[in-house]
Amino acid sequence: MVKYQYIQTQANLFRFLDEIEKATWIAYDTEFISEGRYRPELCLVQVATEFGNYLLDPLRIRDLRPFWERLCEESATAIAHSCRSELEFCYREIGRFPSRVFDVQLAAAFVGHDYPLNFKTLAAETIGVEIEKSETRTDWSRRPLLNAQLEYALDDVRYLKQIADLLTQELESLGRVPWFLEETRSFCETLKASFNDDQWRKILGARVLSRDELAIVRELWTWRQEKALGKNIPPARVFRDDLILEVAKHKTADPSRVSAIRGIRGTSDSQLVKDLCEKIEVALNLPDSQKPKMKARETYPQYSLAVQLINVLIGQHCKRNRVSPRLASTTNDVRRAIAFYDGKLPEKETPRLFQGWRGELLERYVRDFLDGRYAMKFSDDLEDAPVAIKKLLD
Hints:
Order of helices and strands: EHEEEHEHEHHHHHHHHHHHHHEE
Largest sheet: 6 strands, mixed
Strand order of the largest sheet: 1-4-3-2-5-6
Number of strands: 8
Radius of gyration: 26 Å
Low-confidence stretches: none
Number of domains: 3
Strand content: 5-15%
Mean pLDDT: 94
Oligomer: single chain
CATH topology of the largest domain: Nucleotidyltransferase, domain 5
CATH superfamily of the largest domain: Ribonuclease H-like superfamily/Ribonuclease H
Helix content: 40-55%
Number of helices: 16
């Protein structure tokens, strides 16, 4: 039976924070419900430190901000697995990420494990612990939670430090710590950028719209987000993406014409149509300088066959060097690298495959192949390494 403290009051939260004041590491995980909500509802926070195991109940604790503040202090490393959701909860509360983040899933990708790797498999492959996953369908918002559920939740954090220590040793032995830190910083920066107000640009089909139409899309998207947040429901339940696009294409604030658009459930004098027309009028009355425009799409050949071939070569090269191929590159990374080599990208725009740790691992290899410095044939290992590579003399 696992020993732990179950923190359910504000007073006990402060006592818990006093208890872990000198903690040098804080392993944490979250349980939440996202179905039918604008943002996931945090239902439980699991914590492990050198001082013990803890469960924090956000549904009963009035203010969890002090915990997130403690997590972000420089005195402790925050350890997690696949930490996107955990970092997002922290950022939404206090506007920043922990000073030091150690994501065991990411670290494992630099020492030979697949990416992404679920926690059950990672624990088995690293420390040989079999973790039970019998509560994957638990409704974490229900109270009271059963002891079996609480102990199950603790399994997601009580082994994290042991796994992190082992992975740290492997990273150090392979000289991969700088690579891991670089990728962690990049991950956090990308996640932070996803919180900005330009997500409306990702609506499918928006790229081909005029500036007037884009202005309408932006206004309607912002209006929809505010409505969804206020009701705590998914934005699509307020107004669907395809309807935003269709309304924008009509470029009219006439209620009778807006209400006639197929899919809009409201008469010309309904509140929905009034709201839509108000936002459309705002968008259309903006000065041209304030109307958005899309960044020109990069145009270059798809290099379909070349991309497939180089993907195979990169996969083999990464496996030989104990780095997950899925972390190292994407199909678009390879396509941009070929376009750069082919002179179809501006020289100042270095593709991601040739930057940072990816550049150290892959740039020379890919460039030599593109320059014809390798000969290749099928190998004897057609399952895991089907292509045998031999570098030619210069």
